[in-house]
């Protein structure tokens, strides 16, 4: 089954410098997961044009969709649109529909937009506008440029993600009474025999009723089941505390 | 003033696939900030050797210290040590002190370690062990390889970071009644005139008493003050709701 893939690039000095907790990355993880989209990378980088351009060029080549978060406002630290333009080898051009939106917004608040506000309409040539015409999502090639304020990021990601259709992930977990050391070789064998199933092993070191959760995941529930059963067959009796899903 | 820099690479299928919220990245942000270390990137990548090796090689070249989180256990999805070895062009070698630790741990729990457990002692050649001899921090060149379980990540990061001494950041904020459009040009001028001060502009769209927080930050409080005052001088009367710091 075809699986859509994505990466998310949070442009955020404020996150790296501990001024703000990142809300957009965790939100994107959840939404993309619900849409059956495999997230391949989540990067938080400073507001520096050359770093962002380099990451955009690199990451977008590996995935179906690259989402950027932040850096689309009118101030000097808003460099995402210019960085994406640079990464794609496209000029920045003033988008007339965005200009009209900005003028309308300022007119409602009783004035003309200053030049700084109009800079928000300078986007990579070929940028498409999707969703709400008054607050459109901006996309160019496979790069979707989302705003940083979390309430706006959510609105726009939700709007864009609603159009992405990828089959849901099917996942199951085994909760084990054994430490990882004691089943690592068996699990390695199962992972090699089932390369189409993502298998993860997550130990815990507290007073829970299990020592490790082993997760099995694919788009096809039957394959998950086959891999899980192969692993159970290799475990000593009593090793499985319980199972969950799919 | 010299500023130490760092990057953090979270190795985490479980984070990208929404199985676990990342606790290590946010913790590292806070600890590095408190130590005066500038965090240049926070990356979350899947448990894939070639992706991690590429990121390690790239990111460690830009910073003083690269911290990895996770992927150091005994199972098939633990590929960080091999990826770091690959990135540095070093072979994996079995470290005798780590072997002794693993043997001691298993002896306390009444047994011999299986071969899978000993794989945790296969580290990039030249790996140094720091801190608690029974649970040492592993570092090679400028790459520090930390465990993924949050309780262990914190212990080891705290131990390592205690040795990092960089002057503290000095930050101040202005809370403004104006929207960004109306001061973007003035702030751009101040940012250009004070390239040694990091200036950020963070709008909000709720019912707070201000519309934007503008932050000024450097290692030298006097420079922060000069840049902040230059900006205040360019603002219309009544624009500043209040100021905070340094």
In brief:
Two copies of one chain form a homodimer. With 246 residues, chain A is α/β, with parallel strands linked by helices.
How do the strands and helices of this protein lay out in sequence?
Two copies of one chain form a homodimer.
Chain A: E1 5-11, H1 13-16, H2 24-34, E2 38-45, H3 49-60, E3 65-69, H4 80-88, E4 92-94, H5 96-108, H6 115-118, E5 122-124, E6 128-130, E7 137-140, E8 143-146, H7 150-161, E9 170-176, H8 184-193, E10 198-203, E11 212-218, H9 221-233, E12 240-244
Parallel strand pairs in A: 1-2, 1-3, 3-8
Antiparallel strand pairs in A: 4-5, 6-7, 7-8, 9-11, 9-12, 10-11
List keywords for this structure.
homodimer; Molybdenum Cofactor Biosythetic Enzyme, Chain A; Alpha-Beta Plaits; alpha/beta; 6-stranded mixed sheet; 2 domains; 246 residues; elongated
Could you explain how this protein is built, in words?
The structure is a homodimer of 246-residue chains. Chain A is an alpha/beta fold. Chain A has two domains: 5-161, MoaB/Mog-like domain (Molybdenum Cofactor Biosythetic Enzyme, Chain A, 3-Layer(aba) Sandwich), CATH 3.40.980.10; 170-244, Alpha-Beta Plaits. Helices cover 36% and strands 25% of the residues of chain A. The first copy, chain A, is built from nine helices and twelve strands. Chain A has helices at 13-16, 24-34, 49-60, 80-88, 96-108, 115-118, 150-161, 184-193, 221-233; strands at residues 5-11, 38-45, 65-69, 92-94, 122-124, 128-130, 137-140, 143-146, 170-176, 198-203, 212-218, 240-244. In chain A, the strands form three sheets. A six-stranded mixed β-sheet of chain A has the order 2-1-3-8-7-6, with helices on both faces. In chain A, strand 6 and strand 7 (137-140) form a beta hairpin. In chain A, helix 2 packs parallel to helix 7 (150-161) and helix 8 packs antiparallel against helix 9 (221-233). The longest helix of chain A is centred in the middle third of the chain and has 13 residues, at 96-108. Chain A is elongated. In chain A, 45% of the residues are buried. The model of chain A has no long low-confidence stretch (mean pLDDT 95). Chains A and B meet through helix 1, helix 2, strand 2, helix 6 and helix 8 of A and helix 1, helix 2, strand 2, helix 6 and helix 8 of B.
């Amino acid at each position: 089954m075809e699986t859509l893939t994505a990466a998310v690039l949070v442009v955020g000095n404020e996150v790296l410098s501990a001024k703000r907790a990142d809300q957009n990355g965790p939100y994107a993880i959840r939404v993309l997961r619900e849409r059956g989209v495999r997230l391949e990378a989540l990067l938080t980088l400073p507001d520096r044009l050359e770093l962002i351009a380099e990451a955009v060029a690199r990451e977008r080549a590996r995935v179906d969709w690259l989402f950027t978060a932040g850096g689309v406002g009118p101030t000097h630290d808003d460099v995402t649109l210019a960085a994406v333009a640079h990464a794609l080898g496209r000029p920045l051009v003033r988008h007339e529909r965005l200009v009209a939106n900005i003028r309308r917004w300022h007119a409602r608040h009783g004035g003309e937009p200053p030049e700084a506000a109009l800079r928000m309409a300078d986007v990579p040539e070929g940028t498409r506008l999707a969703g709400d015409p008054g607050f459109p999502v901006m996309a160019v090639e496979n790069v979707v440029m989302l705003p940083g304020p979390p309430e706006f990021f959510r609105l726009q990601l939700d709007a864009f993600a609603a159009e992405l259709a990828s089959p849901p992930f099917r996942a199951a977990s085994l909760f084990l009474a054994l430490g990882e050391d004691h089943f690592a070789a068996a699990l390695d064998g199962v992972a090699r025999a089932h390369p189409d199933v993502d298998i993860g092993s997550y130990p815990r070191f507290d007073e829970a009723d299990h020592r490790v959760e082993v997760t099995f995941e694919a788009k096809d529930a039957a394959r998950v089941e086959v891999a899980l059963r192969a692993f159970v067959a290799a475990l000593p009796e009593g090793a499985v505390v319980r199972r969950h899903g799919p």
